[in-house]
Automatic annotation (TrEMBL):
This is Xyloglucan galactosyltransferase MUR3. Keywords: Glycosyltransferase, Golgi apparatus, Membrane, Signal-anchor, Transferase, Transmembrane, Transmembrane helix. It is a single-pass type II membrane protein. It comes from the Eukaryota. One of its GO terms (cellular component) is Golgi membrane. It comes from Cinnamomum micranthum f. kanehirae.
Length: 533
């Protein structure tokens, strides 16, 4: 929930606004959640019958994290990535050295029990169908030919922690010996947990209870004592603002999970991180594509290279009439006024925005895809557009550039177009003119870049393993291990970031430019008084 020059910069404002009435709720429901309601009634029904039982069965059988395959003495094979900083105690011949992950065997109330009660997860979306297929959701049929034949699912945008959890079971370097581990995974479903309590008037005590319960459990473990949790990580499949409640005022939004001192010691992966915080990191929203073999990715990439693109640019989304400063109205107006722009309006009732097929077809037929902020900085749509080989156009650096620094190139001009939103808001800039001024050559180069990015932004099907490609999960685990190694070094040398002049509030700059000098994007990130750290 972002306004731009005003004082209402984050998700908390949403709550304040939302409390003004039911209609705003309905609006929010349609615009934010409608995007995820992607199944026709019929297929939902049949899929649901199919899964009612299998969901429970799955969570019983596979949810027990102690049943994860533990690979200790795998046949040696060459390291795929040289970029790993090596741990101190390495046996040279072990392909997993420096990459071991230990998974905490959490009590089931922190993960699979939440799935058993899937009807309570969201007031707006029936999450029961979305947790099927290990979190990928129901299989998509390919009637319109918008997908390839295998690997496509109606994946919910908030399912990433479940996919990650299941994907971890395929991770090649799991260990049951935590002292060998480079990082410690905490399989807590932080997003699904708080999702149950965001709406419906639950008090702050209820919203915070799992958070307190979890840290209490963690700190008692010997693994915690080693580094005070600095080597622990977990995934929250919602935007960071849902976990950052400032006060205990009942009207404030979300829980305070990310403000607990123990949690601040961990590495938290979320689909949208805070630009002003050093311990949460953006990971891609899930897309609809979850390949189980490398070849499925290569074929899709080739298809996107050959794809005929009819529209110069396109936009799928709803206006935000209640959000001061939103440029979505202008974007829709500019798109309507251009014969080169294709618009998929998501505002009213049942519409094509609910259809993954319609969305993916439009992105595939477009050269540029407009990605203004939504209710918060980021949108799932940015990743759907990359998957479709459509060059994303961002209007705020918080929408991707300062978020997904592990997954996307730091040089944003190599794969995207940036049009500062204040210039659109002032009516100074024609999006069409900017996009038409980009040469065919540059377009080709950017498109090739994003097509190359596809494997990095998709989550592979957790029931199988890609052979040579590294997916969004692999990149995220690498990012965590590198960060933990760095922290380990700092602790060993007795260095503390705050003593080194590190300013938490400038975190977005450190990630991007390695320092905190003046930056042309400073105006986008003036921190609101009440955002905390
Ligand atoms: C996991 O399974 C083992 C044996 O199958 C059992 O002893 C343990 O209690 C289970 N853990 C959880 C969290 O269900
Ligand atoms: C666990 O790993 C450590 C360090 O590599 C080793 O010293 C220890 O013997 C291992 N423990 C078990 C039970 O294998
Ligand atoms: C919060 O809600 C729970 C469940 O409804 C209730 O048991 C508890 O007393 C409430 N706590 C406070 C402080 O109101
Ligand atoms: C809680 O927040 C509301 C709305 O912002 C405000 O009116 C109220 O005074 C606050 N209550 C307390 C105890 O701070
Ligand atoms: C956080 O980690 C530091 C070590 O880096 C440790 O001294 C501190 O106690 C930890 N905090 C908590 C709450 O465990
Ligand atoms: C960023 O990418 C663009 C386009 O590929 C290229 O022209 C430019 O030199 C790159 N900048 C840096 C600093 O590498």
């Amino acid at each position: 929930m972002e306004t731009f020059n005003g004082n209402c910069r984050n998700h908390f404002c949403f709550v304040v606004t939302a409390s003004f009435g039911f209609w705003f709720f309905m609006f929010y429901f349609h615009s934010f959640h409608a995007y995820t309601l992607m199944e026709s009634k019929n297929s939902v029904q049949s899929i649901q019958n199919q899964y009612e039982n299998s969901v429970l069965r799955n969570s019983d059988q596979q949810g027990n994290i102690s049943s994860l395959p533990v690979i200790e003495n795998e046949t040696p094979q060459p390291l795929k990535q040289q970029s790993f900083e090596e741990n101190t105690a390495i046996i040279e011949s072990d392909p997993c050295s420096g990459r071991y992950v230990y998974v905490h065997d959490l009590p089931s109330r922190f993960n699979v029990d939440i799935l058993k009660d899937c009807k309570t997860i969201s007031m707006w979306t029936d999450m029961c169908k979305f947790i099927s297929n290990m979190g990928l959701g129901p299989k998509l049929s390919n009637e319109e030919g918008a997908f390839s034949n295998k690997g496509w699912f109606a994946t919910n945008q908030f399912a990433v922690e479940l996919i990650f959890y299941n994907r971890m079971k395929q991770y090649k370097c799991l260990t049951s010996n935590s002292s060998m581990a480079s990082a410690i995974f905490v399989p807590f479903f932080a997003g699904l947990d708080i999702s149950r309590y965001l709406w419906g008037g639950f008090n702050t005590t209820t919203r915070d209870s799992s958070s307190f319960d979890l840290v209490e459990w963690l700190v008692k473990k010997p693994e915690w004592q080693v580094l005070g949790g600095r080597d622990h990580f977990l995934v929250g499949g919602r935007i960071t603002w849902d976990f950052r409640r400032q006060t205990d005022n009942e009207t404030d939004w979300g829980n305070k999970f990310l403000f607990l001192p123990q949690v601040k010691n961990m590495t938290i992966l979320t689909i949208e991180s805070s630009p002003w915080s050093s311990y949460d990191f953006g990971i891609p929203y899930p897309t609809y594509f979850h390949p189980s073999k490398d070849i499925e990715v290569f074929q899709w990439q080739n298809r996107m290279r050959r794809q005929k693109r009819l529209w110069w640019f396109s936009f799928a989304g709803a206006p935000r009439p209640n959000m001061a400063g939103s440029i979505r109205g202008q974007i829709i107006d500019q798109c309507r006024a251009s014969k080169r722009c294709k618009l998929l309006e998501c505002s009213s009732g049942v519409n094509q925005c609910n259809s993954p097929s319609s969305l993916m077809k439009m992105f595939q037929r477009s050269i540029f895809c407009l990605q203004p902020q939504g209710d918060s900085y980021t949108r799932r749509s940015a990743f759907d557009s990359i998957l479709a080989g459509c060059i994303p156009v961002f209007f705020h650096p918080g929408s991707a550039y300062v978020q997904y620094t592990w997954h996307l190139p730091l040089n944003h001009t190599s794969y995207s177009v940036f049009i500062p939103e204040d210039e659109v808001r002032d009516g100074k800039i024609s999006i069409e003119t900017v996009l038409l001024s980009i040469s065919r050559e540059e377009v080709r180069a950017m498109r090739e870049k994003i097509i190359e990015l596809i494997p990095r932004i998709v989550y592979a099907d957790p029931r199988s393993r890609l052979e040579t490609l590294e997916d969004a999960f692999d990149i995220a685990v690498q990012g965590v291990i590198q960060r933990v190694n760095r922290l380990r070094e700092e602790i060993k040398e007795g260095r503390v970031r705050n003593d080194m002049g590190f300013v938490e509030q400038n975190h977005w700059k450190y990630a991007l430019i390695g320092g905190d000098g003046e930056h042309e994007w400073d105006r986008f990130f003036t921190k609101p008084e009440d955002a905390g750290t």
